[in-house]
Specification:
82 residues; mainly beta; 4-stranded antiparallel β-sheet; 3-stranded antiparallel β-sheet
Length: 82
């Protein structure tokens, strides 16, 4: 499953980028390896739950606020093409 992200900056390492994930509660910033982002999307595991048009997903890395799991809009997820 892939989650839409928006790149907003660079990390400390030249291979890292800072991305924003839109969540039900606002936004979460996550540092990711730039090779993990394909067409403004990043791989996440299968959704863990669903409520009111949002899915609970586990991020590939802990957010800057310490969150691993976030509620995201269904429209920001897509099933892998593979």
């Amino acid at each position: 499953m892939q989650l839409r992200v928006q790149t907003i900056g660079r990390g400390l390492d030249r291979d890292e980028v800072l991305v924003v994930v839109k969540t039900r509660e606002g936004t979460e910033e996550v540092l990711l390896d730039n090779t993990s982002i394909q067409n403004d999307r990043v791989e996440v595991g299968s959704p863990l739950g669903r409520m009111n048009g949002h899915w609970l997903v586990e991020l590939p890395r802990e957010s800057t606020r310490g969150r691993w799991r976030v509620w995201v809009e269904e429209g920001d997820l897509r099933v892998d093409a593979a």
